[in-house]
Amino acid sequence: xxxxLNTSVGRLRLLGLLEGLSLIILVFIAVPVKYxxxxxxxxxxxxxxxxxxxLLFVINAISVSISHQWKFSEVTWKVLIxxxxxxxxxxxxxxxxxxx
Length: 100
Description:
Blueprint: H1 2-5, H2 8-36, H3 41-67, H4 72-82, H5 88-95
Helix pairs in contact: 2-3, 2-5, 3-4, 4-5
């Protein structure tokens, strides 16, 4: 855990993990419970948490992109798109961020 907090890329990786987990919980657990179980409570709880993590991930991705001078067409867009796709942040972490 400490290794993640020492660098801006490490913090981005940690945010990616948290954002990815929150998206999976929201899409695959909370939304089905809302519509099949007629209980919106979980979406009301997880939704705002995911929203904050999403915004933090996007802001940090842009910040790291600028500080590391990533080419938008090669790296930045992939990192930004990853947070919109379930399991996307895990893929980008393994294929891109772990190698920086």
